[in-house]
Amino acid sequence: MAGRAFDAQVVLSPTDSPRGKLLSQYVCTRITRMDNIDVGLFDRDWNNTLYYFVMNADEQIYLRYGGRDARSPDSYLNLASLELALAKGLELHNQYQRGEIKRADRPKPLFPREIPLLVERTISRNVCVECHLIGDYLNVHREQDGTLDKLTHMYRSPDIRTLGIELDVPKGLVLNEVRGSAAAAGMKPGDRITSINGTSVWTFGDLQYQYDKVNRNADRIQMAVDRAGTLVDFAIALPERWWWTDLTFRQWTIEPRVYFDSVALTDQEKRDQRLAEQGGFASRVKRVDMFAEMTKSHELRVGDIVFGVDGVQKDEIANTAELFIKLRKTAGETVTLDVIREGKRMQMKLKTYKMSFRK
Amino acid sequence: MRKTAISFLFALVCLFLAGAGRFLAQDNEIRWLDNYRETIEEAKRTQKPVFLEFRCEP
Q1: Based on the structure, what is the number of domains in chain A?
Q2: What residues in B contact A3, CB-CB < 8 Å?
């Protein structure tokens, strides 16, 4: 199970080890039931099965530790960086006690018993309030009341690597490799990220949480780094669809599953096929998932070009038919695809699949 | 009879060592609470910061 080894190593830290000596200066708590936890205070990406907070008795959070990406649940879990975070937490606590850190406003409380679907499917049945269900049911309620913003709520926790940032994970927020937008802005390997859009960050967990708060329509962000003891600010241009991540591991019930992957056609390819260029989402199928056949979802083949969905061929955000369906359609909906197969135009149905947790 | 007594003594020694080992291990391990309210009370009493782990175990 994700994070199991890391969890065990932390919980069983010997008191005479460097990590144990740090942990001994904390009140350590391990919570496995979310029933009575204020999930408004401890808001996070709910698809993390292991996550940590460093805080005080006034319930003020100093920092977060954890976070994952689509590659693995363990990408950013590292004992060396945890020790850095624990040491930083002690430093921040001392500052708080000396009055050097002001008391923050407490976020609006939200308890699992206030989320109707959680009550219906878990609490009333006395089964575990699993973290991923909190995230999913919040999104189902958003979809029902018309406040769901798929770019923000479904594509949660954008990947910082899209900016060209690769961290030296054991060293926390120190950059290992810098490419793309981050390099163009002037960031360099060895820099340590200290803030994003003016908010201080101490760990990858902090960075990912604050990066997730960036408006999906933004075209740049501010980042500050510590470069050999000097703070340097950068404005980083956000690439197109910077928020996009592979959703496969999330199992959202709000996501229309299409069971194919596609790649956008180039402008030349679109011209060759006499398709809409500007804003057109015509794309070539590069992989068909075996679930397409199992669920009889569709009959697309690798190499097919999908250039229209329910008669629509353009979108201001989506660059592929697959993304258009995920963003603009509801899970379980059936759509009509316009397809080119071996030069011949045709139409076919695609029934999107809605995930279920069998609760 | 003598063999039974030796076996009994051996079992007693094993039980003692197992128990002692457990207590020694506990002395060398971090104490983890599992209740949020108790955590906050303990942090108030000791003036220590809190390290809080959320572990989803479906």
Answers
A1: 2
A2: 55
The enclosing domain of A341 has a CATH number of 2.30.42.10
pLDDT in tens, A271-288: 999 997 788 999 999 999
Contact A12 B29 (CB under 8 A): yes
A276 is a domain residue = yes
Instruction: Establish if A77 belongs to a structural domain.
Output: no
Q: What average pLDDT does the structure give for chain A?
A: 95
8 Å CB contact of B53 and A29? yes
Query: Helix or strand or coil: residue A235?
Result: strand
Q: Which residue of A has its CA nearest to B25?
A: A14
Kindly state whether residue A148 falls inside one of the protein's structural domains.
no
Write the ipTM.
0.93
Closest CA–CA distance from residue B25 to any residue of chain A (Å): 9
Domain of A285 in residue numbering reads as 256-351
Q: Where are the domains of chain B?
A: 2-46
Q: Are A129 and A118 in contact (CB under 8 A)?
A: yes
